[in-house]
Structure of Histone deacetylase 8:
Amino acid sequence: MVSAESSQLQLVDLQLPTERSTCALTATTSLPPRPASPALATRSPPRVGYVFSDPLRRAADRLPSNVMRSTFTHSLIAAYGFPKHMIHLLPALPTKEELCRGHSDAFVDFLTTVDEREIESDTSKAECEQFGLQHDCPVFDGLATYVSLVVGGTLAGARALVDGSVDVAIHWDGGRHHATRDRAAGFCYVNDIVIGIIELQRRFKRILYLDIDVHHGDGVESAFLFSPRVYTCSFHLHDLGFYPGTGGSSSVGRGKGTHHALNVPLRRGLRSPTFMHVVKSVVSEIYACYNPDCIVLQCGADGANGNLSGGKGDERGEGWNLNPNVFADVVAFLHGLPDTIVRTQQERTVPDRCPILILGGGGYHNATTARCWAAATASAINDPRVPIPAADDDVPEHALWAEYAAARPHVGTRADENGKGGYIDTLLERTITAIQKLRVN
Ligand SMILES: [Zn+2]
């Protein structure tokens, strides 16, 4: 484990400037450049906003399921020199009214005052049980601050997209997709995604929510189950006993939101080529049928090799076995989507670029998760001057360098169960048919 002191030194080196000024940091990588997405070869690079503040990093580092992960992520991205190609966005502390857009009044009251409470009292223990603050979501020191800053970060990204100052906004400490209106769940204490999407609705009429975390995006799906203004699509591992257990193909939305929820249940051992084939086939069809004017990507990295249980005990890859660079591939694919659709549907008017809000999520091995999100960040910048680091390359020297040398990515040995019995072909056929049932309002 890395000491707080060493990570603090690295963050001092970040020298992040004030909000929405260009970040200043010297690139230290000497990796060979990978070509930019062909679809964007003729366009200028997108304006990318990057949410960061030192209070946010410190608060996110306390999350019991992801201790120090925020420091790993921001430090690696800084070490590569990516911040100087992005616009710095500061989290804005949300009001109670903004928190209540996604949660009940009572839940928000408890979350925002929990730091001052004496949890050992019987009354508070009962409230913790009522609001799901137990088991995998224990109360921790700094929880109220964490909740405010994580939501504030997602709101900062959403607002920058709403006011048009950026084309892409990234908030790696956000993406908490399991929390529901009244309860914390699955390491998620607050659903910043739901609150962020509601903010995006100030400008955008049809929002496509994509969730590539290995777990089903149940909290977001349930929040917009009745809404035709948000199309939720979750790619996840679906198996007996695997959390959260929801996300079967039969869940398609309700009322006016019928056919605006899509679930793509996948099996264990999934590898990158199959994953990308499924994502490209499904998302292209949604894009063509739904015509979204904004995309929110929950980019949980717990489907990466060895990242579900933190590496130890997951050598076989009990979940998925995705290469860390597949997250960069998904972002590059989203960048190129309008061009893809223009080529295939010449008669339609498609915007030059679809705004994208990119959020984090799961990922339980800090170094692996940081590698995934650093590669995705470079892909979001989409500039030939910014090479996308390969998954097995040495990382640039920085305070946490030794942690990467000790934790090389590995490929799980579990067989890919998705190839058996034509499962993927059947799944895709069923899924494409489901997408084509949606009604555009
Ligand atoms: Zn997850």
Summary: Residues 213-215, 300, 302, 361-362 surround zinc ion (CB under 6 Å). The radius of gyration is 20 Å. Residues 4-435 form a domain with the Arginase; Chain A fold (CATH 3.40.800.20). Residues 1-41 have pLDDT under 50 and may be disordered.
